[in-house]
Every structure is written in C-alpha cells, then in structure tokens.
Design a protein that fits this description.
Blueprint lengths: L8 H82 L28 H4 L42 E5 L10 E14 L2 E13 L6 E3 L14 H12 L5 H12 L5 H27 L4 E12 L7 E11 L4 E7 L5 H6 L5 E4 L4 H7 L5 E4 L2 H10 L5 H23 L4 H26 L8 H11 L1 H4 L13 H14 L8 H19 L4 H11 L13 H12 L1
Helix pairs in contact: 3-15, 5-14, 8-9, 8-11, 9-10, 10-11
Length: 566
C-alpha cells in the first residue's frame, strides 16, 4: 500500500531549496571558521615563540645576575680583605666590643744566634796576663777572587783603663803560715752592673815555701766562659735585653761603644751565646720540658720566625716556634721546628696526658681526635675575634653574638674577682654559662643558611659551629680557661722581636732562641726578675751539681730565695 503524502510537491521543493541554502550558509560559515582557526593557530604560534623568547631572556637575565652577584661577592670579599690589611697595618689592635644599637733588611743588621763550627772561635785567649803584645803583622798574600784573604788575628785587645774596676782577692786553700808572697796572677773580664759596664779584676796571690821551691796559687773562680772576656752580669744583660726587651745585639754593642767606649765584636757575642746555651742552659731547658709535660692542663699555639738557610746563602725560610703554656703552674716552653705538620705536635706531646687547649688548627684535631689520653678544647676568643671582624659586614648579627659572649666573660670576671674555688667556678658555668652557650648555638643553627659562606659573618658562624663541641669543654671543669689568651701573651715577645731582629741566623740559632725564650718567659710568668735570675744562674751553674739542676729553674729558684729570706 503506497504511503500517503503529507505535503505537496511544491512544498518539498521549497524545503529542499531552504536546506541547500542552509547548507551553503554552513559551508561558508565553516570556511570562515576554518580561516579564523588558522589565524588563531598562527597567533598562538606567535605567542608561543614570544613566550619561549621571554623564557630565554629570563634565563639569560638570571645567568647575568648570578654572574654579577659572584663579581659583587668577590669584590666585597676583596674589600674586606683590604680593610683587614689596612686595620692590621694602620688600625687599632684592640678587639674591645662596645654594644650599640644597630642602625729588604738593612745591611748593618746582624744575624742573631749564628752557629760557629770552630771551637777555637768560642774559647777566648787566657785573660790572666794584663799586657798583651800583638804579633807582628804579616804581609797579605795576593789571592784570587774566589779565595778569601787571610788576615792574621791581632790578639786580644787590652781592656780600656777608663772603666771602673772591682777587685776580687782570692786566697789559696789550706794553711800558708810562713809562706812568702812572691807575686800575683791577675785576670780581667767585663761585667755589668745595672746601667754601667765595669771590669772585674780577679787577683790570685802566688806564695812560695821559704825552705823549698814549692809554690801555691790561689784558685781562680769558675766562670761560665772559662777563658772569655764576659762575666755573668754582662752575659745576663745581653741575653735579657735581646730576648725580653727585643734589643738586637748590634744595638747593644753600639750603645756600649757610645756610652762606655768599649768595642765588642758581634761574632764574639754570638759565640758567648752559643756556649751559654749549648753547654749550660740546655740542661735547664730539658728539666723544664719534663716538668711541663707532667701537668694536667696545657695550652698550645705556634708562631712564625724567619730563619736563614744553612745551604743557600742569602735565603731565608719560614720556621715555627711551638709554644706550650701551663696556666696554673706558670711554665712556658718554646720548641723550634722547621715545619707545621701533624708530626710536630705528635712528637712534642707524646708524653702528655690531660686537657689540651688550642686554636682551631686542624693538625691538633687530626692527631688527638681519637686519643684516650688527650682531651681537646678550643678557644672562645678565636670565635669572638671572627665576629668582631664581621661587624662591618653584618653589624646586627655580629653584635648580637658579641653581646652574648660578653655575658660569658662577665661570669668569668665575677668568679675571678670573688676568688671562686674550682668547684664554684664549675657550678657557675653549669648554671649560667651553659644556657647562654645554648642560646648562641640555637642562633647559629638558625642563621647559618641565611649567611653567605664566603662573607665574614658566614665564616664566623661556620667556624663556631665547626668547633662547637670543643668550645663547651671548658664548662665541665673549673680549672679550665675559656680561651688561650695566656699562651698568646707568652708568644708576644717573639712578635715584637721579629720587628727588631727580623730573622734567626740559622736553625741552631733558632733553637737557642727557643731555649732562652722558654726560661725568660717562665721568669716573667712567675714574677721573677729575668736579669736577677739569669745573673745568678750564670754565676752558679758552672759548679752546680747536675743532680740538683731543678733548683735553678725559675719556679724553684723563687721558692728557695723566699725561704732563705723568710
């Protein structure tokens, strides 16, 4: 059956036309939309390119900024270094902190302590004969440029007659009743009384037995330099002036020549030092070393000294004085070594057991970090010093730490002024110093990441954190000190001496200097007059029993002197 038509043919044709018209409209719209879509794609591609270019520019900008920051940091660091050098040269030496609210050497310079190989140069001619007739001068023999010209020694010069004399008469040992005096043997030598060069005349009478040819002579006193021209007072004056008051030998000799009209040879004075130290004072030095290694608490530090080379003439290398200080026993020991390696403290302190306080030098930590006989502790002043230097870099942070460290030293001052016992000091530190230190530690942990590593404040923070455990050790024992100021004070004469004599003549001379520095600084630590002590030692030591050598050390010498005068 055929379906019924709901509309006529004309209507269908009209509808078809409308549909075709709609189709054409849709096609045109589609074409237009495709064109717009292509345009949008092109615009999007352009935006993507611009975005990538912007990102590239941002990376370049960040790279450039990082480069500038590195240059700025390097420039600032160099600026700090320049400021530090200017401060070292021209600025104040004090490290005092007051809290505020933040808003080539001269050709006339003598080498000191030179070592002389010839024993004949050390021993002077016998001083018993008053009149000395110099031998006839021989003609100088022409020599080549490489061969040294030999100049005959003119003999010992007469001691000037204008100097004041002290006459010491010596009598023979034993009964000389009835003996006849036939003459005198007289010897003269220089000596020193404070402010004046004098001459000591030792007069030894000669006696003869009347009924025979037997004679006897009064024995001469035993001197440090048996056949030398220097008495103990002059030797003590020379050595104390050089090693305690930093006056090189050549200045002292110039002073003798100007004031007293006496000319002494520099080589002769160096020879005198060699005999005094190598033959006598080295015995005291070894006894002092044994004593200082027996204490339970030592401070250690080192300082530089220029030493002329024994091999290359005119060349100098850097040597080191290693210094031990016993704060409670008041003993000081200098030891010379040509290097600064770990082997030096390992050998120097191999017989030591107890607390060892040092700066943060890595050699000490490397040697003793696993030791069961040595407990290391570090110096609070070295930490403080770094923050004091960082004040110009970051005043707010640096002054905050300095203020807290000041509180720690206020506690130490209180304990010192009120004469606290060792146990009272330990309790005071435990109850009051430890909380302050804990506050500093918390501040360091918070600020370490926000400081530039190579800046002064960054270095100060990281240095404190690196040695923190060793900083706390002083709070566990009232005998310990928070810093190494005392050993640094013992080193100070070397620093002052370097500005005057500048170098040591050779390694042996440096070792002799270490011996004299050790003994004289121990005198100063014990409030012993260095000249009085050394004069007495030079007088007594030639005949002193070696088994009682400890009696001549400054500490024992002072005790015996006080007991004798009590």
């Amino acid at each position: 059956m055929k379906p019924l038509l709901t509309f006529g043919l004309p209507q269908a044709l009209e509808k078809i036309k409308r549909l075709e018209a709609d189709k054409d409209g849709l096609v045109s719209i589609t074409v237009r939309m495709e064109g717009q879509l292509q345009q949008k794609d092109q615009e999007l591609d352009g935006l993507r390119r611009e975005l990538q270019e912007a990102r590239d520019r941002e990376v370049e900008k960040e790279t450039y900024i990082a480069s500038l920051m590195e240059q700025v940091a390097e420039g600032v660091k160099k600026g700090w270094q320049v400021e530090e050098l200017q401060r070292m040269i021209f600025g104040r030496r004090s490290e005092r902190f007051i809290s505020i609210e933040p808003d080539k050497s001269s050709t006339t310079q003598l080498t000191l302590g030179s070592d002389f190989t010839s024993a004949q140069e050390v021993i002077q001619p016998d001083a018993e004969i008053i009149t000395v007739v110099p031998p006839a001068q021989e003609k100088a023999v022409a020599t080549s440029r490489k061969q040294k010209r030999h100049v005959p020694h003119a003999g010992k010069k007469d001691i000037p007659g204008h100097l004041p004399r002290e006459e010491h008469y010596h009598q023979p040992v034993g009964d000389i009743s009835g003996w006849r005096k036939t003459g005198e043997r007289i010897s003269e030598r220089y000596d020193y009384r404070p402010g004046q060069l004098i001459v000591i005349r030792d007069i030894c009478p000669v006696y003869q037995k009347p009924e025979g040819c037997e004679i006897t002579v009064a024995p001469r006193p035993v001197y440090l330099l048996e056949k030398g021209l220097a008495g103990p007072g002059l030797l003590a004056h020379l050595h104390v002036q050089k090693y305690t008051y930093h006056a090189p030998y050549y200045r002292q000799l110039q002073q003798f020549e100007r004031q007293d009209g006496v000319r002494l040879a520099a080589a002769t004075v160096n020879d005198w030092e060699a005999v005094c130290v190598d033959k006598y004072l080295v015995l005291l030095y070894e006894a002092l070393k044994k004593q200082i290694l027996l204490v339970a608490y030592l401070q250690c530090d080192e300082t530089t000294i220029k030493v002329c080379s024994d091999v290359a003439k005119g060349k100098a290398h850097q040597g080191y004085f290693w210094v031990l200080h016993a704060p409670h026993e008041r003993l000081v020991l200098f030891e010379y070594n040509g290097g600064r390696s770990q082997e030096v403290p390992r050998q120097l302190l191999k017989d030591f057991a107890g607390h060892l306080q040092t700066d943060a030098y890595a050699a000490y930590y490397a040697v003793f970090k696993d030791s069961d006989r040595v407990i290391l502790l570090c110096c609070l002043v070295h930490v403080r010093r770094k923050f004091e230097k960082a004040l110009k870099n970051d005043a707010t942070r640096a002054s905050h730490v300095l203020q807290l460290i000041k509180l720690l030293y206020d506690l130490e001052r209180t304990a010192r002024e009120q004469a606290y016992s060792v146990e009272q000091i330990r309790v005071l530190r435990k109850e009051q110093a430890v909380p302050i230190l804990q506050q500093i530690k918390e501040w360091l942990d918070v600020n370490v990441e926000s400081t530039v590593k190579d800046s002064l404040i960054g270095e100060a923070v990281r240095h404190a954190l690196k040695i923190w455990d060793r900083l706390l050790v002083y709070t566990t024992d009232g005998r310990l000190l928070p810093d190494t100021n005392r050993v640094e004070n013992a080193i100070r004469p070397v620093a002052l001496g370097r500005k005057n004599y500048m170098f040591q003549g050779n390694e042996q001379g440096a070792r002799r200097a270490a011996i004299l520095y050790s003994l004289l600084e121990t005198c100063k630590s014990n409030e012993v007059n260095p000249y009085e002590w050394l004069n007495d030692i030079y007088t007594r030591i030639p005949s002193h029993p070696i088994s009682r050598i400890n009696e001549l050390l400054p500490t024992t010498w002072k005790q015996l002197k006080q007991a004798a005068t009590a």
